[in-house]
Design brief:
The chain is mostly helical. The protein has a domain at 36-116. The protein is built from three helices and no strands. It comes from Sphingomonas faeni.
């Protein structure tokens, strides 16, 4: 009976050993894809932060919000940016949960700006007009 169990154990050990490099490679590739996705999300958030700061400045210039309120909103954005930078340096990435939290913070600020009638920029404000009015 012992001899019949040993070949099975040997076959199982060899099979597991052969699968390990493939599993490790798949995990590494998954991690690289997740890092790339995380970097894209963080970059998009930085762009959103910049756009929101521009909206706050526009709102202040057009007197749609008071200077004190603009300062408070800019302080929230600065704290968000600093937190992202700190976490990125400490961990090498910003977690999805943190990105979601930062997006909620910006969403709250953007909602306030929307209620006050501050126009949104969609990133094409500085593009020249298309010839003959075509897009």
């Amino acid at each position: 009976m012992i001899l019949t169990k040993q070949p099975f154990a040997l076959v199982a050990a060899v099979a597991i050993g052969l699968m390990m490099p493939g599993v490790a490679f798949a995990q590494q590739e998954g991690t690289q894809a997740q890092r790339a996705e995380n970097m894209q999300a963080a970059t998009a958030l930085h762009t959103r932060i910049d756009a929101t700061q521009a909206r706050i400045e526009n709102a202040r210039r057009t007197h749609k919000i008071a200077r004190a309120r603009a300062t408070a909103l800019n302080r929230q954005i600065a704290q968000t940016r600093q937190s992202m930078t700190r976490l990125g340096k400490q961990q090498g990435f910003v977690s999805a949960a943190e990105l979601a939290s930062y997006n909620r913070t910006l969403g709250t600020i953007e909602s306030e700006l929307d209620q006050r009638g501050v126009a949104r920029s969609y990133g094409k404000d500085m593009l020249p007009a298309a010839p003959n009015g075509r897009h």
